[in-house]
Every structure is written in C-alpha cells, then in structure tokens.
User: Fold these one by one.
Assistant:
Number 1:
Amino acid sequence: MFGPVLQGERISLEPPRPEDSAARIRWFADHIVARYYTSPGVPLQGADVASADRAARDESLVLWRIALDGRSIGTSFLLGIDYVSRHAMSSMMIGERSMWGHGYATEVVRLRTAFAFNELGLERLESSSFAANVGMHRALERSGYRPIAHRTRQYFVDGRWHDEIVFELLRRDWLSSQSSSLVRNRSMSSGSTPAQRT
C-alpha cells in the first residue's frame, strides 16, 4: 500500500506519484546511487502502471516518495510486513546525489519508524546496508537501530565482494529512547539538567 503523508521538519514522506517515474529510472541507472541499494523486489522500480497498482494493493508493503519542497528526492518503504509476529524490513534510497549529506536520511528513518511502531503496532524493524555505507549506518543509529550481524562477502558488486551490516530496532527500545528525549527536552526548557532534577 502507499503510505500516508508524514510531515517532517524539512522533508515529507508521501504516496508515490506517476510523475516521479523518470526520476526513479534515472536513480537506478546511476551506478553511484544504486550501488549500495540491497533491498529486494522494490515496486515501482520500472514505474509502470501495473507495478503501481500491485504496490497499492500489497498489504505487506508501505511505500513512500521522499519529498523536499514538492520534489521527489528518493524512496522509502517497509517491506515484508508480518502483522502476526509484528515485524518488517525497512529501507530507503536518496536518489538525488546533491541531497546526500544533509541529514534527510535521518529524518526519513525517524518518520518511518514512528509510523511503524505507532500506527502499524509493529514490535521489531530490521534494516541492512553495505558495510561501506557509513552514512546510512549513522541515520539508522540516530533513531536507535543497533547492529546485530556482520555478513561477510554478501554482495558481489563492481568486481569484488562487499560485506553487509544488519541492524534492528525493537519497539520497547524505541519507546524508551523517546521517553529519554522527552525528559531531556523538558529539562532544557526549564533551565535545568536531568542530574539537577529530583
């Protein structure tokens, strides 16, 4: 299914639009952009009508465009959602290279994570990334994901093997981090530090 609009401070997650097709095709054709993309079976990659229709009806998927000032700069999704065991895979691609390094990925992860736990009631999220993709690692870790596995020689790209890092985030850990952030924010607004409060 297409995800609802989730508004962040600078970017928003929105349902995909047909006019984004050309951009998606361009991103996946760009070797530098696509080289770290590991997620299987991404709908709309070909941007055809049948693919869009399947994605809209697939209850095990939530798909968004990443929008900045109305322009699509990437895609993000929850994949393989298991509503019984309440877990899913998560992933994204910032397709516009000029948008790398601005913190947009961190904002995407936070919006997507809150939706997965608050709206879908999931208990566990998992994501994976090339070992060399340190930017994505930082975006995941800022939202509380922690590395749980290192898969050696997982992908063969550009004539050589690449390792993969697997991350997970549990609902209980995410809720705990949200509570801690709330306490810190209240302390800062009251002019005291957590250590000074009784």
Note: Strands lie at 6-7, 12-14, 62-68, 71-82, 87-94, 124-130, 146-157, 160-170.
Number 2:
Amino acid sequence: MSQNIEGKVVVITGASSGLGEATARHLSEKGAKVAVAARRTERIESLADEINDNGGQALAVTTDVTEQEQVDELVDKAADEFGRIDVMLNNAGLMPFAPLERRKIDEWEQMIDVNVKGVLYGIAAALPYMKEQESGHIINVSSVAGHKVMPNGTVYCATKHAVRAISEGLRQEVKPYNIRSTIISPGAVDSELPQSSSEEDMRETVETLYEENAIPADSFARAVGYAISQPEEVDINEILYRPTNQEL
C-alpha cells in the first residue's frame, strides 16, 4: 500500500480529529510528508509532534478553511517546507442536523462556508502548484448524504451534493495537467460530526446512529491511501462506502 505514497506531500484539512487525524497518521506511516491543518492549534501541533517523533515528517498550520487567505497560506507553507504539493485532501466539514422549519440560518451559512467554500478554497490554493508540476491529486470529502437526501439534514445533504458536482467538474477541467481527482463518500465513521448540531434532540439522534453503526476512522484513511497508491495513470474518481450494518 505504500507504493506511490512514500515521499508524497499531502495537505490535510480538518486534521485535528477523526478522519483527518487518522489519515495523517496512516499516510505518514506509509512514508508521506504531511501538512496538517485545522483551527485547533494545540491538537494539530500535538499530532505533528507525534508524527515527527515517530520518524515521519509533518508540519502543523493553523487554518480556518472559511478564510481563503489562510488556505492559500497553508498550501504555500507546505510547499515551502517540503518543496511541492502532491495531494490536497479537503476534509474539513460540519454536520449540524435540524429541520428547515427551525431556521438555523447561522448553521446553514457555516455549513456552506466550511463544506463548500472550504473545498473550493483548497482546490484554488493547490491547483497552481499542481498545474506547474503537471501532476497532483485533489481528494474531496463528500458523504453518503451526497448521494441521498434525508429529512433534517437537508442543507448538509445539499453541501455534500455540491462537493460531488464540484469534484466532477474539476475532474474534467484538469485532464490537460495530468491531475487526478477523487471523491470519498463515507457513511457513519467515528468522528466529531455528530456533535455539530446545536439542537439537542437532533444531536442525540445522530449520536445514537453513530454509536450503533460507526466504524473506525482508519477505514477512511485506508480509502484515501488506496486512491493515492494507484499508478499515476489510474484515476480513482469516487469511493462510496458504509458500515456493513448501516441501512441508510
């Protein structure tokens, strides 16, 4: 599995917990150099220290993906530190469920800013480097909710459908530059997502779903590793997976 991963420079947003944190560890073990980004400085610095202490190479960059300048700075710092950018993993996301009638407008706007604009900012920051290199790989995180619409998660589902649309457009546009693109759509995977909602009843419902179904975050890390590890002429465009016992 370390084939085609070793030595690659991978930028990971949302790396302070869950899927991003597990992926940073997994890819580092396979020989990748990782730039880990999130708003929680202490967490990503601890993760980077752990990776470096274990013989890997990691850089922590405090980043709010809703701020385009910060995402540009993240990618610039990774390129300055490691010399290039091979993979951009746009992983940061929020999932505050609530019925539309509750008018959680601030949460809608935050989801759009993180789940959609954050992905676009990551693409915009990485593309100039990858275009110049004539190589690279952009991985965007959608969800089962990017394939199905469910009540109480309407806006979340909309953002994850948007990620898939953006990713497919990207796939077609970057062919002249030898850039690969992948959408990964997980089901219930152990993370902090169930805690996103400010509505107690919604939070409890989602937490119960995850407690009954969620699989470890390293399942996502292995999916990322699989996509990256393919030969350069192989472009894995989409991975959709769920816990075996998840019906939704």
Note: Residues 9-239 form a domain with the Rossmann fold fold (CATH 3.40.50.720).
